[in-house]
Amino acid sequence: MDRISNLSNEIICHIVSFLSAKEATVASVLSKRWQNLYTIIPNLEFDNTLENQGSLKDFLNGLLALPASSRIKNVSIKCRGRDGPNRHADLNRFLCNVLKRGVLKLKLDIWVTLNGGYSLPVEIFTCKTLVELELGSILQIDLVPENALLPALKTLTIDSVRFSDQSGCAFQKLISSCPVLVELGILNVEWEQWEWSCRVSSPTLERLTINHRYYFAYIGNIYYDMEGITFDTPSLTNLKYYDFAPQSYPMVNLDSLVEATVGLKLPLHHAWTREYARHGDTIPSVTNLIKGLRNVETLNLTCTDTVDGPLHYNYQLGDEYESDEVNYYEDESESDDDESICECLSEYSFLESCLVKTVEITEYSGTKKELEHMKHFLEKLSCLELVKVCSNETDDEEQIQLRTNLLNIPRSSKCKIEFEFIPPRSFL
Asked: Which residues contact 371 (CB under 8 A, 6 or more apart)?
């Protein structure tokens, strides 16, 4: 009989208390005796927006009643509104307890007032077992301890979180404490409200998603003034980036990037060139960002701002731009009175040396502005082999007209145009 089997139940339970939920699961197959000594809980969830959920205090008491050897794999807590006078204290006691139970995935959806004096427990930044961590929402992080270390964390999502650290950059401290981080999501962000170094840096990061809080609901009245954002992510292969253009991108290291989706919009009091600028407008420079995309195999452009501005005014990609595929999402709400698309695209000299073979157009409606886009793509992209056009047009005559207009545009003899007409979704 092995030595471990001779140990007392108390000692075995003490050993298990140091294991992650995953390790405890593996250990439980050693013998039936081990299986009877401790419990592995797959999922632990609390949501005070549901009826009959009970209070956070009651939930905490139930957790504290579990033996110390009990392991928990996944924890999700959704706590909104007031839930007793000691809500913050109860919440942190809960978090500290589950973090000692080998938790692998922790999802927090807690709403607190930004001036409410709430701080996450420091233990959340030193957990050795966490593999996935979601922090949100309406949450402010003022301090990340100097000894912060999340050695197993591979996926980090921060949703509607602000960072405010008078003594340094709490955001970069958090990222630096994740030595094996692979995926980072920065959702519903308001950079302009952060106190930080304006730097996203990680040597291991492979997938990055960023979307500004007001990007998808922008109606032209957002004041946004960011001096610059740096991306130092040499291992990044996939980027999804929806934001308002800052003044500049001081440094961009995206050498491993394979696929990128980029949407940049102009906020209030900004213009791509002085020709269209009013007095006092900011002229953003996104040269370094676009040059950082030079090695991508698939590039998705999600709004006409991205095409009209960055791709023309701020740089010349030349022979360095070797993307195999460009996907362009047309926005039929764009006005033909915007900055002249003819002027924007007429000198797209980099397109002639671009190695793009496939262009995908979605939500195409055949407006004059969209047709001008297509004309320059087809005329300038000498290596183009396939253009996929997807439209929501349902009228037969309009479909014929749309086809005719595109097929009459001069293009390479090897270039094919495919059409797909999909009825718009009904929300009834």
From this structure: 405, 406, 409
* Contact assessment for residue 368 and residue 336, using Cβ atoms and an 8 Å cutoff: yes
Q: What single-letter DSSP state applies at residue 184?
A: E
* Residue ranges per structural domain of the chain: 316-428
> Could you say which DSSP state residue 420 is in?
E
Sequential pLDDT tens for the chain (428 residues): 456 666 776 676 666 666 655 565 556 555 555 655 557 788 888 888 777 677 888 888 888 888 877 888 899 998 876 655 578 888 899 999 999 988 999 999 988 766 667 889 999 999 999 999 999 888 889 889 999 999 999 999 999 999 987 677 899 999 999 999 999 999 999 988 888 889 999 999 999 999 998 887 765 566 667 788 999 999 999 999 998 888 889 999 999 999 988 888 777 665 655 555 566 666 667 778 888 887 888 877 765 555 454 554 433 333 344 556 666 555 544 444 444 333 333 444 555 666 677 877 877 888 887 888 788 778 877 888 888 888 889 999 999 999 999 999 998 889 999 999 988 764 34
Q: Which of 368, 366, 309 is nearest to 339 (CA)?
A: 309
